[in-house]
Amino acid sequence: MKSFNVRFAVLILIAFTLGCSEFLIVGILNDLALEFSKPVSTIGLLVTIFAFVYAICTPLITMLISKFKYYHAMIVLLLIYILGNILSATSINYSMLVISRVITAAVSGSLISIALTYGNAISTPQKRPVVIAWIFSGFSIATVVGVPVGTYISTISSWHIAFWVIIALSTVTLTLAILSLPQDLKSAPSKNGSNQLAIFKDKRIIIGLLIPVFVASATHVFNTFMAPIFTRLIDFNNMELSFILFIIGVISIISSQLAAVVATHGGLKLFPYILTAEIILFMLMPFSYHNSVFSVGVILTFELVTGLLGASITVHFFDVAEESYPQSMVLAASFNPVFFNLGISIGSATGSLIVSNLGLTSIGFGSTIYAVISLIAVIILNKILNTHKKA
Fold first, then answer.
1. C-beta neighbour count of 291 within 10 angstroms
2. Which pLDDT tens digit goes with each residue over 25-48?
3. pTM assigned to the model
4. C-alpha angle 158/160/163, rounded to 5°?
5. Which domain holds residue 289?
6. Distance in angstroms (rounded) separating the CA atoms of residues 331 and 113
7. pLDDT digits over 148-199, tens only?
8. Beta-sheet strands, E only, within 206-267
9. 235: phi > 0 → left, psi -120 to 50 → alpha, else beta; which?
10. How many Å apart are CA 354 and CA 350, to the nearest integer?
11. CATH no. for residue 283?
């Protein structure tokens, strides 16, 4: 149970479990709107709330748990995570569901940060991009299996049952983590929390943080309302939606693995080209909905492109922390998921405003604005890194 491969698999399973709970809402948006008699734009705010709480709580909890062994912190956080999902499964009104999502979101970011730190610790420098990419693939696998299956269960039975399945999976994940993960891993000594926060003074970090924020903002203006876009604009039924979500999940896994290649061969230097392609796809979206084949092609290509970014920016944060701020390794591990979720919050809130005021067809234009900002941030960061190397 304590070989590299087993531990590696458990870390991926942790990410998969977290992804199932976080992204399930997207697949059951229509069902929740029907049961609670709320507009889709209001239910979409569940994504915003989750991401906002995730972004706020993760760095605070991450700094707190730095005083403890990661093994013990992970067990406690997984127990709280399971409790949050139990509240989701038993929610009888919208307010109760919001509270449950707040609890789940509060610990999810710290859990993935610990998983990434474990991955960094158990792998060699050469394997690190691949290990990190595979951990992020856990989220992609969740979109392949967890979200479509959850959507299917919600369609034939109830969204409450979908959450109970996640609870069972979380319990299995907790058991495997207890049996396999190293128990002695702890952060480098730090006299106080401010030492950890010193990393935020580095321009390589400050500009780097803008990238996951605005990449996620661009992505989730669209992704939050993927279900109603497919069912209302492209005219798919719920069963066809489940199949499309499955295909998107497969593409996300492929994209996550390609992200390791990007991280190993070029990394941030390739980001301007990737983001330019993403901008073009966003601009095409509003004109694609009249043709189901064309629109699905644009969306699937977009999902492939957007997944190429995660591993490189995470490796960047680890590199800066290892070089200059070793006491901030777990905090650095949290940067991509934290600021990506901050971006999800911004993007989903923007999407809600666009849907409420302009309609679903205008979502692509909102995504384009955020993608352009992320492109500018990447260009600036690459210039900073080139200057740092010459110094």
1. 12
2. 877 878 888 888 888 778 878 887
3. 0.74
4. 120
5. 4-390
6. 7
7. 777 788 888 888 999 999 999 999 999 999 998 888 777 655 544 457 778 8
8. none
9. left
10. 6
11. 1.20.1250.20
